C-alpha cells in the first residue's frame, strides 16, 4: 500500500466514522430554535439525541453480522441511503415526535459507517498498526466537533434549523460516492456465515467469551460515554445558564474539540514507549482526579463560564487516549468475527451513551451538576471495571497454569 493509498483510505474511513458525530454535534446549537419552533421544551429536544444514540446502539448489532456475511460495501450502500432519506425527513418534521422518529431512522442508517470503518481497519491493516490507525481516524473524527457546531450555529441563524439536516444529507451523499468509487472492498462476503438468529447470537457469544474483548469493550464503552453527558448538557449549560449565542456556543464547542484532537496524535508517540494497557490505566486515573475536581468545584461555585470551559478541556483530553487504545485492544483478537466484534463494541458505547444522555435530561435542574457529575461517574466506573477485570484475568491465568502443572504431575 503506497502512502497516497494509505492517506486516502484513512480519510474515507474517517469520513464514514464522522457521519454519526456530525449528526450529533451539528444540530446542538439549534436546540433552542427547535424547541421554540416545535412548541416543546429543551429536555424534549434532548430526547431526540437519546433516540439517535439508541438507534446507533441497536443498528450496530444488526450491521455487524451483515458486514461479515455480505462484505463491507453492500451494507454501506443500504445504510447510507437510509440515512440520507431520514435526514430529509428530519428537515421536514413539524412535531417533536416526528423529529424523534426520524432521528431514530437516521441513526439506524448512519451507524453502518462506524461499524464498517472499524471492521475495515482490521481488514486492511496489520494488528501492529491498528492502534496508530485508530489514532488517525480519531483525528479525523475529532475535527467534526470543531466544524459541525459552528456550521450548525450559523446555518440555524441564516436558514433555520431545518437546513442542518439538508446539509447532513448532502455531505453523506458525497461520502457514499467516495465509498463506491474509491474505498477497497476489504473482507469479501462469507456465505458460510448464517444470518439465522441462533447463528448470529452464536457469533456474538463467541466474541463475548474473549476476556480481552469484554474487558476493553466495557471499559471503553463506559469511559468513553462521558462526552455524551457533555453533548446532552452543554448547549443548555452554556446557552441558558451562561447566555451565550448559538455562534458563541459553536466556537466554545470547537475549542473544546481541540482537547480530543491533540491527545490522539500524542498517542502515536506514547505507543512507542508504553503499552495500550498502560496508557488506558494512566488516562482513567487522570480523568478521575480531574472529574472529581470538576464536580466539587462546580458544586462549590469555584468556576465561572471560562473556568468551566478550562476544566472541561482538561477532562475531555483523556478521551483522545482512551478511545483508540480500547478499540485496538477490543478488536485485536479477531479476524473472522471482526464485524461482529466491532458491532458489539460500538453498541456498548452508544448504548451507554444513550443512557447517559437520557440521564442528563432526566436530572436536568438548571445547573451544570448533572452534566459534570455523570461525566465523572463514567470514568470512575471505567477505572473500577478495568482494575477488577485485570485482577480476574490474572487470577484465571494463574489458576489455569496451576491446573496444567497439577495435571502434568499426575501423569
UniProtKB/TrEMBL annotation:
PROSITE patterns per record: MFS
In terms of superkingdom, the source organism counts as: Bacteria
Arranged from A to Z, the UniProt key words for this protein are: Cell membrane, Membrane, Transmembrane, Transmembrane helix, Transport
Q: Residues in domain Major facilitator superfamily (MFS) profile?
A: 9-394
- InterPro entries xref list: Efflux_drug-R_Bcr/CmlA, MFS, MFS_dom, MFS_trans_sf
Keyword rRNA-binding tagged:
no
Membrane topology per the entry is: Multi-pass membrane protein
Where it sits in the cell: the answer is: Cell membrane
Main localization of the protein described in the UniProt heading: membrane
Q: Which residues cross the membrane?
A: 45-64, 76-94, 100-121, 133-155, 161-183, 213-231, 251-271, 283-302, 368-388
Q: Name one Pfam family in it.
A: MFS_1
Q: Which GO terms describe its cellular component?
A: plasma membrane
Indicate the family of this protein.
Belongs to the major facilitator superfamily. Bcr/CmlA family.
What is this protein identified as? Multidrug transporter
From which lineage does this chain's organism come? Bacteria, Pseudomonadati, Bacteroidota, Cytophagia, Cytophagales
Amino acid at each position: 500500500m503506497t502512502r497516497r493509498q494509505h492517506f486516502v483510505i484513512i480519510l474515507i474511513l474517517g469520513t464514514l466514522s464522522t457521519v454519526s458525530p456530525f449528526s450529533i454535534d451539528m444540530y446542538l446549537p439549534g436546540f433552542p430554535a427547535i424547541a421554540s419552533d416545535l412548541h416543546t421544551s429543551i429536555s424534549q429536544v434532548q430526547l431526540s439525541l437519546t433516540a439517535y444514540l439508541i438507534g446507533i446502539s441497536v443498528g450496530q448489532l444488526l450491521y455487524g453480522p451483515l458486514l461479515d456475511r455480505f462484505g463491507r460495501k453492500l451494507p454501506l450502500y443500504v445504510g447510507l441511503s437510509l440515512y440520507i432519506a431520514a435526514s430529509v425527513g428530519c428537515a421536514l418534521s413539524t412535531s417533536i415526535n416526528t423529529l424523534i422518529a426520524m432521528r431514530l431512522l437516521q441513526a439506524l442508517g448512519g451507524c453502518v459507517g462506524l461499524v464498517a470503518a472499524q471492521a475495515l481497519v482490521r481488514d486492511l491493516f496489520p494488528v501492529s498498526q491498528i492502534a496508530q490507525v485508530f489514532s488517525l481516524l480519531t483525528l479525523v473524527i475529532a475535527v467534526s466537533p470543531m466544524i459541525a457546531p459552528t456550521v450548525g450555529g450559523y446555518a440555524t441563524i441564516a436558514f433555520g434549523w431545518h437546513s442542518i439536516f439538508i446539509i447532513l444529507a448532502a455531505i453523506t451523499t458525497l461520502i457514499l460516492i467516495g465509498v463506491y468509487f474509491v474505498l477497497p472492498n476489504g473482507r469479501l462476503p462469507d456465505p458460510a456465515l448464517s444470518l439465522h438468529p441462533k447463528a448470529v447470537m452464536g457469533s456474538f457469544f463467541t466474541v463475548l467469551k474473549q476476556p480481552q474483548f469484554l474487558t476493553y469493550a466495557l471499559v471503553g464503552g463506559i469511559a468513553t460515554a462521558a462526552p455524551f453527558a457533555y453533548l446532552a448538557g452543554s448547549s443548555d449549560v452554556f446557552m441558558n445558564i451562561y447566555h451565550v449565542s448559538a455562534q458563541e456556543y459553536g466556537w466554545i464547542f470547537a475549542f473544546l474539540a481541540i482537547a480530543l484532537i491533540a491527545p490522539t496524535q500524542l498517542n502515536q508517540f506514547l505507543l512507542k514507549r508504553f503499552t495500550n494497557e498502560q496508557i488506558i490505566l494512566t488516562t482513567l486515573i487522570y480523568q478521575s482526579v480531574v472529574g472529581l475536581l470538576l464536580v466539587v468545584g462546580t458544586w462549590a461555585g469555584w468556576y465561572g463560564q471560562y473556568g468551566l470551559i478550562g476544566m472541561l478541556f482538561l477532562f475531555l483530553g483523556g478521551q483522545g487516549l482512551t478511545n483508540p487504545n480500547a478499540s485496538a485492544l477490543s478488536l485485536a483478537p479477531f479476524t473472522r468475527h471482526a464485524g461482529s466484534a466491532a458491532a458489539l463494541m460500538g453498541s456498548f458505547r452508544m448504548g451507554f451513551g444513550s443512557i447517559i444522555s437520557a440521564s442528563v435530561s432526566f436530572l436536568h435542574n438548571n445547573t451544570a451538576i448533572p452534566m459534570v457529575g455523570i461525566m465523572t461517574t463514567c470514568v470512575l466506573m471505567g477505572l473500577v471495571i478495568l482494575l477488577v477485570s485485570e485482577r480476574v484475568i490474572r487470577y484465571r491465568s494463574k489458576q489455569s497454569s496451576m491446573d496444567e502443572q497439577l495435571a502434568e504431575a499426575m501423569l
